[in-house]
Amino acid sequence: MTWPTKKLGEVLDYEQPTKYIVRSTTYKKLGSIPVLTAGKSFILGYTDEKDGIFPKDKLPVIIFDDFTTASKFVDFPFKVKSSAMKILHPKRDLVDAKYVFYKMQTIDFPVTQHKRYWISKYSQIKIPLPPLSEQKRIVEKIEKLFAKIDEAERLRAESLAASAALLPSALHKVFSRAKKENWPTKKLGEIAETKMGGTPRTT
Q1: What is the DSSP-derived secondary structure letter of residue 2?
Q2: Which of 17, 116, 169, 199 has the highest count of CB atoms within 10 angstroms of its CB?
Q3: CA distance to 4, 43, 59, per residue, from 26 (Å)
Q4: Residues 81-134: pLDDT tens digits?
């Protein structure tokens, strides 16, 4: 099925983050309000500042790093580190917030200069725009897939932990036979040779 397309700037309104910038950059490990960046670290720390908090009734939003084009989906009140981002508001009669966010993660956008990109370039990118009901179905499928990936990673971690625990047990079982079967013993120095490392020649 061929869906109509819209520019990102047609389905997302942007807001400057100035009034939500945290005053103190001495962040806490715990606190009432997270301080966000759109980069990999996402939550930089926490603040107890009471004003300039992004309000619940405007959520969810996408925070967009204007210089790197990295983005994060946010559905909780927050403050921000700096003005180097845009806060993107989905036009709810046109687009599901998670649908457009997930679609943005698939965009291969070349960042070649240190400059702001949202207004001049990124907002002009077109995306397919199915009906809202179909957008929600797509989001549901994506999140079911993510849940399966998370479960697979959990099982893998458990398997690795179990394997790590089994190795010492298996070795102990093997070498415990030494005492029962009265194996002969040797000092490590009698069966291993120590050699000093050398410095490679330079040419």
Answers
A1: P
A2: 17
A3: 47, 13, 26
A4: 999 999 999 999 999 999 999 999 999 999 999 999 999 999 999 999 999 999
Helix (H) or strand (E) segment spanning residue 186 = none
One-character DSSP codes across 84-117: SEEEEEE-TTT--HHHHHHHHTT------SSS--
- For 139-162, write each residue's pLDDT tens digit: 999 999 888 887 887 878 777 777
Q: In the chain, where does DSSP find H-type helix? A: 8-11, 97-104, 132-175, 177-180, 188-191
**Could you tell me the two tokens for 199?**
């410095």
Q: Considering only CA atoms, which of 15, 14, 22 is closest in space to residue 80?
A: 22
Residue extents of the structural domains in the chain: 5-130, 144-178
For residue 44, give the H/E element and its range. Answer: strand 43-47
pLDDT recorded at residue 167? 67
CATH number attached to the domain at 5-130: 3.90.220.20
